[in-house]
Amino acid sequence: MPAAFSDPIWQKPKAVIALPSLFPAGSPVDVVIVGGGIMGLSTALHAARLGLAVQVLEAGAIGEGASGLNGGQVIPGLKYDPEWLLEHFGPERGAALVNFAASTADAVFDLIRDERLAVPFVRNGWIQAAHTETALKAAANRDRQWRARGADVQLLSQAEIAAMTGAQGYLGGWLDRRAGVIDPLAYTSELARVATAAGARIAERQKVVKLGREAGFWRVSTANGAELRAKAVVLATNAYTGGLLPGLAETIVPLHSFQIATVPLSSNLAATILPEGQAVSDSRRILVYYRKSADGRLVLGGRGRMALPTSEGDWVHLERALARLYPALAGVAIEKRWFGRVAMTPDHLPHIHEPEPGLLAVVGCQGRGVGLMTALGGRMASYLANGDINQLPFPLSPIRPIPFHAFRQIGVAATIAWYRMLDAFER
Fold first, then answer.
1. pLDDT tens, 117-151?
2. Integer Cα distance of 237 and 242 in angstroms
3. Crossing angle, helix 133-148 and helix 82-89, to 10 degrees?
4. What's the CA gap between 268 and 290, in Å, rounded?
5. What is the spatial distance between Cα 209 and Cα 48, in angstroms, rounded to a whole number?
6. Could you give the CA distance from residue 111 to residue 347 in angstroms, rounded to a whole number?
7. CA separation for the pair 334, 299 (Å, rounded)
8. pLDDT tens digit string along 168-226?
9. Would the pTM of this model clear 0.70, i.e. be above it?
10. Which among 154, 127, 151, 125 is positioned nearest to 140, based on CA atoms?
11. Range of the domain at 326
């Protein structure tokens, strides 16, 4: 694929970190983490701080996957509101889950502050923009529920959302001031740095190809011929999950999230577009999300084609969305185009699996992975260290492959096309 289609605007910190590679052959470790994204690195950092010997194995390079390619929106909460969580999970677990969901953005920004991470960020909130009366009513219901729990949120009128976004076409919206934006590649890289400093070992270009149980340990084999023994294994591969654990890849629907970035905006344009630096996601069936970058570009993303992109035309739907929202940007050049892979579960909740003792897997970020996986990594580390199941905010669930999974992508592609057409009629 041409570099122009795989090169995001995000930047690694200038300081080069030396990643220690592998523990000596034959030396058992406490935990091997497969996948060096936000989930894997957060788990590694907290597990190392708890005194565990931790080995991270990353198939590519740190930041090459969705953790370094996403839109950098740090959004607390889940797809479901508090009252649904309480009804679905019961008063005790539901309340714990609401509290966990409320804390996920704090987990990111507290980590940046406490560890002095070299990560550009703005924490002025996230706007869920409503383009229909139905969406506006849903926003009011969400506002009521979170406001009752003391969250710093606000329902926005049509005039208020127009002033805060500079965009056209919204009837109102909802502002969650707990949220913000970061440079996701810088964040992932800095997570690797502090995890390494805490004692975790991180090996890049080490694709795990086989897992086996032997004499009370897990034997982990990589394509390069490395072998490790571990008391526990955590699969933190999410949308990049393959056949390492039978059935796991069939529990998720991987989707491509495409993004575009303009050239840096002129001061006149920048003053009228997201002047306070919020992130935005809209209420369309095939939503678009956008924010400004640290160097003054507008970055906009949304669902893309299921096949790998082959030309700039594969991003044209995002350019149309940009022009619809901001007609003044119609002539502004698009300088960068890239994409990453995200994972959705049928119930739109993260899933934690432990099919065998000491073998854990986490899948399903649902588009909120920066905060969710940062916070969940700390809980996973506590569970690995002391075995207390109450440390996990979500219940352990069995691996249930989606029926007819092989045909699911065809259905998803058709649904996206249909929803995009419906959205066009609601302009």
1. 999 999 999 999 999 999 999 999 999 999 999 99
2. 8
3. 70
4. 19
5. 24
6. 30
7. 10
8. 999 999 999 999 999 999 999 999 999 999 999 999 999 999 999 998 899 999 999 99
9. yes
10. 154
11. 3-125+178-405
CB 277, CB 288: distance < 8 Å: no
- Are residues 25 and 63 both part of a single domain? yes
> Residue 270: which H helix or E strand, with range?
helix 267-272
Counted domains in the chain: 2
For the record, the structure tokens of 384 come out as 């690995």
| Locus of tokens 């996920």 | 104
- For residue 178, the SS3 value is coil
415 C-beta neighbours (distance < 10 Å), count: 12
Q: How far is CA 343 from CA 28, 260, 348, 410, 427, in A?
A: 32, 20, 10, 16, 28
Q: Work out the angle at residue 23's Cα, subtended by the Cα atoms of residues 17 and 25, and round it to the nearest 5 degrees.
A: 145
What is the DSSP secondary-structure string of 270-317? HHHSSTT--EEEE-SSS-EEEEE-TTS-EEEEEE--SSPP-SGGGGHH
Backbone angles phi, psi at 16, to 5 degrees: -85, 130
Distance from C-alpha of 352 to C-alpha of 400, rounded to nearest angstrom = 12
**CA 163 centroid distance within chain:** 28
On whether both 219 and 326 belong to a single domain, the answer is yes
Write down the residue that tokens 């009521």 correspond to. 144
Q: Which amino acid is at 206?
A: Q
Question: Measured between alpha carbons, how far is 216 from 212 in angstroms, rounded to an integer?
Answer: 10
Distance, in Å, from the CA atom of 310 to the CA atom of 1, rounded to the nearest integer, reads 7
d(CA 124, CA 276): 7
Q: Which of 406, 350, 407, 398 is nearest to 104 (CA)?
A: 350
CA dist 102 and 80 (Å) reads 12
Q: How far is CA 384 from CA 44, 189, 390, in A?
A: 11, 24, 12
Considering the domain architecture, whether residues 224 and 262 belong to the same structural domain is answered as yes
> What is the SS3 assignment for 307?
coil
Q: Give CA–CA dist 13/120, Å, rounded.
A: 10
Residues with pLDDT less than 70, the chain: 1-6, 15-20, 285, 404-427
Q: Shortest CA distance to 13 belongs to which of 187, 180, 181?
A: 187
Which residues 6+ apart lie within 8 Å of 169 measured at CB? 131, 324, 325, 427
Looking at the structure, tell me whether residues 171 and 224 fall in a common domain: no
DSSP state of 368: -
Tokens for 151? 């969250």
